Amino acid sequence: MFSITSYHGNSAAAENNAKVLKVNGMSFYFSYETLVAVNTGTELKVIQNNWGPTTGHHLNSIDGGKKESRLTKEDFQKFVEKIKIVTEVSV
Predict the structure, then answer these.
(1) 38: nearest Cα among 52, 50, 57, 24
(2) Do the beta carbons of residue 44 and residue 36 sit within 8 Å?
């Protein structure tokens, strides 16, 4: 099963641009249309802010502002590539 919800803010614009997709116990956080964090259920990985202040607010909502533990773009991509998602969809 999966769900898509907002994870940041209380304004319509913020909520529309900050979404989390939950699939099989994992959470995939998006700022606008960009994947910026993954919570596997056992570990949270967040990318460094390479964009602007709004995405920075989104990242802070995810990791509580722990900027020192954020991954570089390259390390985040390597982490994401290692994740295997197995889903079953019946129609």
Answers:
(1) 24
(2) no
